[in-house]
């Protein structure tokens, strides 16, 4: 016999994401799902953000397939941090986040970064209960990335174009990156930054403060 | 890329609903997958067939209806259907202000049980 199912396959994930969302709201916490390909500079961006005096109380969840290098880097800046090892999974899902929330002092934080697994594809497809998604693209990855990996550009509220100090050494068309990214997502806020020189980072942290304190 | 975890979700959902309806065996599962969902139908069927053996879906066939991307243009007020996975401009008027109305589906529609 035929049985109607009519269920979204990711419904279980979305249900847990809503529960995470409720816990974040109870703590008046602003949450950013930070995504990029491997090596674009997500952890460096977080280290710089923590070292600039934003006045925000920031916590971090680090997602990696293996290892705790990133959490150790964050810990040196005195921020509460939890490392998740996905053991092979290409993205973080809502349940992985739910399981570690008890290890963070949510009530004492203004802003929580969830640093996703380095991957330009899958992380954009799974809600974890965040307020917004932010992505990092480093210049050396090339100007073809927005059109090759459109979903992440469409889902993100902001794009950090990192390693902008490398521009003189690369045959990369920054304007094409920006034009294609904005075609995919006209509301995308773009910051050109360099973690090496510090360029552009204050514009990013100003935007961050405005977002986190408004919530 | 994560078709295996999607396949596991499908098996969990249909197994639970099959048991709840008082049946013990799933013969087929019918899905609707959007072209812009990021999931490749062939890879999903491969993953489903690879992991179904320990479940009540062990003999089930997975059928997938692919849904093309469609949208509604704010500039020309017309709706459209395209074969591409992603579009940057309205295929009718080249406007860049449009909403995607279908193509991101990842749904289980129904199943045959016995």
Layout of SSEs?
The complex is a heterodimer of chains A (215) and B (114).
Chain A: E1 2-8, H1 11-26, E2 30-36, H2 42-51, E3 58-64, H3 69-75, E4 81-85, H4 94-100, E5 111-115, E6 132-138, H5 145-148, H6 150-155, E7 158-162, H7 174-184, E8 189-192, H8 201-214
Parallel strand pairs in A: 2-5, 2-6, 3-4, 3-5, 6-7, 7-8
Helix pairs in contact in A: 1-4
Chain B: H1 3-20, E1 26-34, H2 41-51, E2 61-67, E3 69-73, E4 79-82, E5 98-102, E6 106-113
Parallel strand pairs in B: 1-2
Antiparallel strand pairs in B: 1-6, 3-4, 3-5
> The biggest beta sheet of chain A, please?
7 strands, parallel
Shape of chain A: globular
Give the integer mean of the pLDDT values of chain A.
95
Using the alpha-carbon principal axes, give the shape of chain B: elongated
What's the β-strand tally of chain A? 8
Query: What is the name of the CATH superfamily of chain A?
Result: P-loop containing nucleotide triphosphate hydrolases
Q: Largest interface, by Cβ-Cβ below 8 angstroms: which chains and how many residues each?
A: A-B, 26 and 32 residues
DSSP helical segment count of chain B: 2
The CATH architecture name of the domain at 3-69 and 102-113 in chain B reads 2-Layer Sandwich
Structural class of chain A: alpha/beta
The level 1 CATH classification of the domain at 3-69 and 102-113 in chain B is: Alpha Beta
The strand line-up of the biggest sheet of chain A is 4-3-5-2-6-7-8
CATH C-level category of chain A: Alpha Beta
Counting helices, strands and paired strands, the structural category of chain B is alpha+beta
Number of strands of chain B: 6
Q: In DSSP terms, counting alpha (H) and pi (I) runs of 4 or more, how many helices of chain A?
A: 8
Distance between the first and last residues' Cα of chain B: 32 Å
The CATH architecture name of chain A reads: 3-Layer(aba) Sandwich
Describe the model:
The complex is a heterodimer of chains A (215) and B (114). With 215 residues, chain A is of the alpha/beta class. Chain A contains eight helices and eight strands. Chain A has one domain (11-214): P-loop containing nucleotide triphosphate hydrolases (Rossmann fold), CATH 3.40.50.300. In chain A, helix 1 (11-26) packs parallel to helix 4 (94-100). The termini of chain A are far apart. The model of chain A has no long low-confidence stretch (mean pLDDT 95). Chain B has 114 residues and is of the alpha+beta class. Chain B has a domain at 3-69 and 102-113: hypothetical protein PF0899 fold (2-Layer Sandwich). Chain B is built from two helices and six strands; from the N terminus they run H-E-H-E-E-E-E-E. Chain B has helices at residues 3-20, 41-51, and strands spanning 26-34, 61-67, 69-73, 79-82, 98-102, 106-113. In chain B, strand 1, helix 2 and strand 2 form a beta-alpha-beta unit. The mean pLDDT of chain B is 93. Classes of the chains: A alpha/beta (215), B alpha+beta (114). The interface between A and B is medium-sized, with 26 and 32 residues.
């Amino acid at each position: 016999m035929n049985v109607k199912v009519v269920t979204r396959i990711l419904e279980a994930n979305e249900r847990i994401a809503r529960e995470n969302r409720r816990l974040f709201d109870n703590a008046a916490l602003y949450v950013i799902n930070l995504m990029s390909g491997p090596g674009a500079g997500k952890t460096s961006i977080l280290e710089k953000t923590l070292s600039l005096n934003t006045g925000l109380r920031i916590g971090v969840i680090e997602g990696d397939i293996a290892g705790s290098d990133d959490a150790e880097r964050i810990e040196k800046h005195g921020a509460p941090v939890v490392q998740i090892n996905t053991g092979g999974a290409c993205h973080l899902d809502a349940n992985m986040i739910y399981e570690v929330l008890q290890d963070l002092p949510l009530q004492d934080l203004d802003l929580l970064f969830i640093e996703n697994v380095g991957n330009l594809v899958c992380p954009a497809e799974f809600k974890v209960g965040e307020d917004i998604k932010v992505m990092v693209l480093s210049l050396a990855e090339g100007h073809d990335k927005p059109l090759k990996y459109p979903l992440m550009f469409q889902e993100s509220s902001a794009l950090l174009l990192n390693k902008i100090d490398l521009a003189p050494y690369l045959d990369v068309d920054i304007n094409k990156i920006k034009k294609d990214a904005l075609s995919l997502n006209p509301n995308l806020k773009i910051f050109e930054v360099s973690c090496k020189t510090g360029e552009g980072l204050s514009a990013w942290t100003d935007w961050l403060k405005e977002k986190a304190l408004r919530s | 890329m994560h078709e295996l975890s999607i396949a596991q979700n499908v098996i969990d959902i249909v197994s639970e609903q099959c048991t709840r309806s008082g049946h013990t065996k799933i013969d087929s599962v019918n899905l609707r997958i959007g072209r812009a969902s990021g999931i490749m139908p062939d890879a999903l069927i491969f993953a489903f067939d690879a992991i179904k053996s320990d479940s009540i879906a062990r003999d089930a066939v997975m059928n997938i209806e692919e849904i093309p991307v469609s949208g509604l243009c704010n500039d020309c007020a017309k709706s459209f259907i395209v074969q591409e996975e992603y579009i940057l401009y309205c295929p009718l008027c080249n406007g860049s202000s449009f909403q995607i109305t279908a193509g991101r589906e990842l749904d289980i529609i129904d199943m045959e049980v016995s």
